[in-house]
Design brief:
Blueprint lengths: L3 E9 L2 E9 L9 E9 L2 H8 L15 E9 L9 E5 L14 E4 L5 E2 L6 H23 L9 E3 L5 H12 L4 E5 L5 H7 L3 E4 L15 E6 L3 H9 L1 E9 L13 H5 L3 E4 L7 H14 L2 H6 L1 E5 L3 H9 L6 E5 L3
Parallel strand pairs: 8-9, 8-11, 9-10, 11-12, 12-13, 14-15
Antiparallel strand pairs: 1-2, 3-4, 3-6, 3-15, 4-5, 5-7
Helix pairs in contact: 1-9, 2-3, 2-7
Length: 329
């Protein structure tokens, strides 16, 4: 195998060093499937990893990138053979195991999902971990019996990756979607994705009441902290919140009141170590329920060279929707 290009993050006395390098096959980490990476994406977690704003990276040096889509080059795993198209997100890839910001990756076959037949590798990364997480959140609400006729469903962080795909999915499924965002200038964009109403996230930044006026039948939250606490206080009786993120913080300044007085359910969604059967189910649902025209509208493409810049922008809240990285030269 010829040397291949990669984005490498190293630890220095001054902090992190981010640079483009050429690696050899011998530099790859352990795994039973080697992949020619065609596309990756830039997620909020990737932004935190590359900028060093949070301790995402657990070993140095590391190739970041929590998303991978490409073609199998070689495999000793029974489930995959050369030529297979595959998708990977989670399992510590881009955190403790070399990730998608390289032209070649070696991973465990048990982490992979076969690329759904109707998706290209570019489509799969337009969805990526963010869209797959959004689908898991939708499935969680459905499993709590949240139905469109019960009332409005809130999506926080709606202009981000998880939020924008959540809006598109929920609207396709017939829900009355209210989108919360700190970028109210994106209101038209969010309405094009299917939001019926767009509200300023400031509505969820104030002091948290044990119980506020009930409004939401369901919610998908990728923000956490005070925002999630305020959302919980505003849930209708027996309403459910699927929580999957912590953009605002890991704390949760709430009380037991929503849970014991209104029967509110808080369902945690972990997309990192989701078992394979549920992963496959989520991707099958995305193939069925995601409007591909809306996915295209919320997606932009960049080159591998652009990743450090986009990483800084996504942490600064300057990126909307999904960003696909065209890795293949």
């Amino acid at each position: 195998m010829k040397p291949f290009r990669a984005l490498l993050v190293s630890k220095t006395d001054a902090g992190q060093n981010v640079e483009f390098v050429h690696l050899n096959e011998s530099d790859l980490m352990d795994g039973d499937v080697t992949i020619a990476v065609e596309h990756s994406s830039v997620n909020y977690k990737d932004g935190l990893a590359i900028t060093g704003k949070a301790p995402i990276i657990r070993r140095y040096p590391l190739v970041p990138g929590i998303d991978i889509a490409g073609t199998v080059l070689s495999s000793s795993h029974a489930g995959y053979q050369p030529g297979d198209k595959v998708v990977l997100g989670g399992w510590g890839v881009g955190e403790g195991h070399f990730g998608g910001y390289a032209e070649v990756a070696r991973v465990k076959g048990d982490w992979l999902v076969p690329l759904p037949k109707s998706f290209s590798t570019s489509d799969a990364m337009a969805i990526g971990v963010a869209g797959y997480t959004a689908m898991l959140c939708v499935m969680a609400l459905e499993e709590q019996d949240v139905k469109p006729e019960q009332g409005e469903v809130l999506v926080t962080g709606a202009a981000g990756g998880v939020g924008s795909v959540s809006v598109a999915l929920l609207s396709k499924l017939g829900f009355n979607v209210v989108a919360s965002t700190g970028r109210v200038e994106e209101a038209e964009f969010l309405k094009q994705l299917g939001a019926t109403t767009v509200i300023d996230r400031k509505e969820f930044n104030g002091p948290v009441k044990p119980l506020a006026k009930s409004r939401w039948a369901g919610a998908i939250d990728s923000v956490g902290s005070t925002t999630l606490a305020n959302v919980l206080s505003q849930m209708k009786e027996d309403g459910s919140v699927a929580a999957c993120g912590l953009a605002q913080g890991m704390d949760l300044p709430t009380s037991v009141a929503p849970f014991i007085l209104r029967g509110v359910k808080l369902v945690g969604v972990n997309s990192v170590t989701t078992p394979l059967p549920r992963r496959r189910a989520a991707w099958a649902r995305l193939e069925r329920d995601l409007d591909m025209a809306k996915l295209k509208a919320l997606t932009t493409h960049v080159k591998l060279d652009d990743v450090p810049r986009v990483a800084a922008d996504i942490v600064a809240g300057k990126v909307r929707g999904r960003v696909v990285v065209d890795v293949k030269p």
